């Protein structure tokens, strides 16, 4: 959440329009030798959205790792028929702790460092990027445009989230669309299952054309399915993270289909050793500059801030906010412009939670939380024949800095969040200094090394073995072989 030295940009309907309206003029299955060009309009719209997407997803990783991803991305992108010129594509490694990848018309392709860390060879990286390019080549965004009621990354995501929680046509859906802005880290665009399958197939085709083993599409989907399952277990919540919380829904159901598409006798390069050499040292998980989630706890060393989510809830960190999710309600920690008037700040936040700007509490209550000036209000409103409570709880962090929780619960059920509101505190310099980034390290297996021994080297105290297995695409029955290279996560 929040870089301490940059201000994130909320994508407006016009700036995000490229994700829905821009169209590719070339066929998805164009032959490798066909010369196609990306239209000037696509390039212009992509260039306009690119810097805003970088801010939305934590910025671009630079250095040798990013250069490597760029090289692989351009190699696979030119297989799509969109263009034969590598220079027509911009491939970016994003500084985001969420497993995600996407592409927009104009030749812009993105993948997060977290998703790259989950991969185990270059062919898997090429497959994921090929899948995303396939969405653009098949003009999936344009085809989905008519189904989108708002041309905004945040708006569309908010409707999906609010609809899943409260009902798609509920009055609270408009509020949910504003509260769940963190979701743009989770979902850029909701494609249909048919479109996902088509993109998988195109990714397999592009892999084969580029000389990669096309079975890599299946193995990376398998790793993503395993990671999704582990994430649900690690959340400690009975509120299972649903399909709509993933950019690519239900990867497990697509593993066999991708393998079938590749063919039983498929072959090609994997470039595993090259891949592992290049990705070593990637930041893994949350970047301390954006705050760190540790179970139900969140700590931001830059802002000297910490709080804890309620029991049974899980946290998802984004570059602009932190989402809080559980069966009893949903919420978000974020910030807004502040000029020293906390009462006015709370009312401003409420107003922005409604498209009509008419959401307002009857009164604002002032208080202090661990020595921090605070204020809160609550509004009860109707939703699909029932009632819900919307709570805004704000903190004056400095003369020109405030933070606030926005929470939606069924009426009368906001009490579980009380402990979270009261847990907000300032942390000491020593506590802030103790927050360290985790990094990906590639090590060589020695004689006598075991799965359990490798897992013990992971920078985690919970489910270390499961984390190690998923990270390396292994199972509990796998055997390590001397000389084999594997990934671990260390401080």
UniProtKB/TrEMBL annotation:
InterPro entries, A to Z: LysM, LysM_dom_sf, Mito/Outer_Membr_Metalloprot, Peptidase_M48
Domain of life: Bacteria
Entry EC no(s): 3.4.24.-
Signal peptide feature range: 1-30
Key words, A-Z: Hydrolase, Metal-binding, Metalloprotease, Protease, Signal, Zinc
Pfam families membership: LysM, Peptidase_M48
Molecular function via GO: metallopeptidase activity
Cofactor: Zn(2+)
Enzyme class, UniProt record, top EC level: hydrolase
Cited CDD domains: LysM, M48C_Oma1-like
Domain LysM: 441-488
Protein name: M48 family metalloprotease
């Amino acid at each position: 959440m929040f870089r301490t030295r940059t201000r994130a940009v909320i994508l407006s309907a016009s700036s995000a329009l490229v994700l829905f309206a821009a169209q590719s003029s070339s066929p998805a299955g164009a032959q490798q030798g066909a010369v196609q060009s990306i239209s000037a309009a696509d390039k212009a719209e992509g260039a306009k959205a690119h810097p805003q997407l970088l801010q939305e997803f934590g910025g671009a990783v630079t250095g040798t790792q990013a250069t490597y991803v760029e090289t692989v991305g351009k190699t696979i992108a030119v297989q799509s028929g969109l263009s034969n010129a590598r220079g027509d594509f911009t491939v970016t490694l994003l500084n985001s702790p969420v497993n995600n990848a996407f592409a927009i018309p104009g030749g812009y392709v993105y993948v997060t460092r977290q998703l790259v860390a989950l991969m185990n060879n270059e062919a898997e990286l090429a497959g994921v990027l090929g899948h995303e390019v396939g969405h653009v080549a098949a003009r999936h965004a344009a085809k989905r445009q008519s189904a989108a009621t708002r041309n905004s990354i945040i708006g569309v995501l908010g409707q999906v989230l609010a609809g899943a929680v409260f009902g798609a046509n509920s009055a609270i859906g408009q509020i949910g669309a504003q509260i769940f802005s963190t979701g743009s880290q989770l979902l850029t665009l909701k494609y249909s299952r048919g479109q996902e399958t088509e993109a998988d197939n195109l990714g397999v085709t592009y892999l084969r054309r580029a000389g990669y083993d096309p079975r890599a599409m299946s193995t990376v989907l398998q790793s993503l399915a395993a990671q999704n399952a582990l994430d649900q277990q690690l959340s400690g919540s009975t509120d299972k993270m649903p399909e709509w919380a993933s950019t690519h829904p239900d990867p497990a159901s697509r593993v066999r289909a991708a393998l079938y598409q590749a063919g039983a006798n498929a072959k090609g390069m994997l470039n595993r050793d090259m891949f592992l050499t290049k990705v070593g040292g990637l930041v893994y998980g949350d970047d301390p500059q954006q705050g760190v989630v540790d179970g139900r706890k969140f700590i931001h060393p830059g802002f000297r801030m910490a709080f804890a989510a309620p029991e049974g809830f899980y946290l998802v960190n984004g570059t602009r906010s932190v989402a809080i999710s559980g069966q009893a309600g949903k919420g978000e920690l974020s910030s807004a412009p502040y000029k020293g008037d906390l009462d006015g700040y709370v009312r401003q936040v409420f107003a922005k939670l409604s498209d009509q700007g008419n959401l307002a509490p009857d009164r604002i209550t002032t208080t202090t939380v661990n020595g921090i000036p605070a204020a809160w209000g609550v509004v009860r409103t109707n939703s699909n024949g029932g009632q819900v409570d919307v709570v805004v709880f704000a903190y004056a962090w400095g003369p020109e800095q405030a933070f606030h929780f926005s929470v939606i619960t069924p009426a009368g059920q906001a009490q579980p969040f009380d402990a979270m509101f009261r847990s907000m505190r300032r942390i000491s310099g020593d506590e802030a200094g103790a927050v360290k980034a985790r990094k990906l390290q590639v090590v060589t297996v020695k004689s006598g090394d075991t799965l359990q021994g490798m897992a013990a080297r992971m920078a985690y105290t919970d489910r270390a073995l499961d984390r190690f297995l998923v990270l390396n695409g292994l199972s509990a029955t796998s055997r390590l072989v001397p000389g084999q290279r594997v990934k671990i996560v260390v401080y």
